[in-house]
Amino acid sequence: MSVLLCDSNGELWHTRVKELNLDYISMPYVLAGKEYDYDLGEKTDFGHFYNSVRGGEIPKTQALNPEDYKEILTPYFEKGEDVLYVSFSHKLSGTFAQLDAAYEELKAQFPERKLTVFDTKSISLGTGIQVEQAAILKQNGASDEEILNFLKDFTNRVCVYFVVDDLMHLKRGGRCSGFAAFAGTVLGLKPMLSVDEEGGLKVLAKLGGRKKAISTLAAKVVSELTDEDKYSVYVVDADCKEEGDKLRDLILEKRPNAHIVRQIVGPVIGSHCGPGTLGVIFIGKERPVPLK
């Protein structure tokens, strides 16, 4: 018997996680010297977080340590359960080295138990949409092997596009150079990014202004969306709801049958992308191809 596990960096809303009977790892962030664990929106004060960042507070994220992971995994192993963990991109965090260290220790104590980790090579609901489908398969009786075989193909069809409002947040996270961040801020450029096949962030285009950013994101969904009768389209915003709603409406003008889920970006992802970020996550034929 196995348990399907995910993490809060996949950003499935807490009500959806409960519907799918999922367990999740709460990823931490620090704001104004206080540590929080993201609870997928259940009790999160999004207004406090984004107002604080706009007011000059610099949030930080951190990896869990091996003891944290041992505390998470041990109860499952003690009950005789294996764990299938569908995780966010390993390339975007050092936390998975800590997970590996914890598992190495636990194998000596629980030699018959198994941890299997599937790297979605994505982030936010690019991960969440894969977790969601894995959970549906599991509810329908699929084995771990069947779930993994599905995900190996499905992950290559997950399209993630997002536009950040302020490049300085990416600069602090090491996602662009200081000069690029300064130049982009001065010129008002809005970079459109995606997640490549290795799970890293890549710039696809540099757009001039918010209106262009919104229309470009909408156009990506309209032109690339497949299986709209089967999979949801996620439209996310980092505390810019009106613009997120506008993006949703533009998509529905051309793809009226699309099932769109609107959601706010959580504090962990928001710590890296910053307020004003807009994104779309959907299923297409293949992942976006980054600029060389």
Q: Round the mean pLDDT to the nearest integer and report it.
A: 92
User: Low-confidence parts lasting 5 or more residues at pLDDT below 50?
Assistant: 173-187
Order of helices and strands: EHEEEHEHEHEHHEHHEEHEHEHE
CATH class of the largest domain: Alpha Beta
Tell me what the CATH architecture of the largest domain is.
3-Layer(aba) Sandwich
Shape: globular
**Cα Rg:** 19 Å
What's the helix count?
11
The total of beta strands comes to 13
The tally of structural domains comes to: 2
Helix content range of the residues, please? 40-55%
User: Which strand order spans the largest sheet, edge to edge or round the barrel?
Assistant: 10-9-8-13-11-12
Distance between the termini: 44 Å
Question: Which structural class is indicated by helix and strand composition?
Answer: alpha/beta
The main β sheet shows up as: 6 strands, mixed
Describe this structure in words.
By secondary structure, the chain is α/β, with parallel strands linked by helices. The chain has 2 domains: 2-155, Rossmann fold (3-Layer(aba) Sandwich); 157-283, Hypothetical Protein Tm841, Chain: A,domain 3 (2-Layer Sandwich), CATH 3.30.1180. Helices cover 41% and strands 23% of the residues. Strands 10-9-8-13-11-12 form a 6-stranded mixed β-sheet, with helices on both faces. Strands 2-1-6-7 form a 4-stranded parallel β-sheet, sandwiched between helices. It has a 3-stranded antiparallel β-sheet with strand order 4-3-5, covered by helices on one side. Helix 3 (66-78) packs across helix 4 (95-109), helix 5 (125-139) packs antiparallel against helix 6 (144-154) and helix 9 (210-224) packs parallel to helix 10 (241-254). The longest helix has 15 residues, at 95-109. The termini are far apart.
